[in-house]
Design goal:
Elements: H1 2-8, H2 14-42, H3 57-78, H4 83-101, H5 103-106, H6 110-140
Helix pairs in contact: 2-3, 2-6, 3-4, 4-6
Length: 141
């Protein structure tokens, strides 16, 4: 019976396993970011100063959108599905545009912007590594 189980499970390379772990770690941070936005919007944190009804319109649009996008991105990354990184990219690009493009409206959070770029670079590195790894495996067969 254990032989049958070993045949059914796919064998992941080290790079593939590291990529899955990376996606799941980012998924946890996405879920935390989503929970943070929800906590702000419903008034749990910051003594209710960021409640949805008290926010200016530009923050209402951004915070409500990100409160939905971050958890969805986290779920997609956790499940290792193709749309997870796409939703992450939309949410990260939104925050980059907010904090780097309109700091007078949303505040300047350069550390967050740099973190998003770093995650994107690491993700790109993994994708390139996987591409060459799979290409090498296909050519050797």
């Amino acid at each position: 019976m254990s032989d049958m189980r070993e045949q059914d499970t796919p064998h992941l390379t080290t790079t593939e396993l590291a990529f899955e772990i990376f996606q799941r770690v980012i998924a946890i941070f996405c879920l935390i970011a989503g929970l943070r936005y929800w906590a702000l919007l419903i008034g749990i944190s910051e003594l209710g100063a960021w409640r949805f009804d008290l926010l200016p319109v530009h923050w209402k649009i951004a915070a409500a959108s990100l409160a939905v996008l971050w958890p969805v991105a986290g779920i997609g990354l956790w499940m290792i599905v193709s749309w997870g990184p796409v939703i992450w990219l939309v949410a990260a690009a939104t925050e980059i545009i907010m904090h780097a493009g309109f700091p007078e409206l949303y505040g300047s959070r350069w550390l967050l912007v740099v973190a998003h770029f770093l995650v994107a670079l690491i993700y790109g590195g993994f994708r390139i590594g996987l591409y060459f790894s799979r290409r090498e495996t296909a050519s050797s067969e």
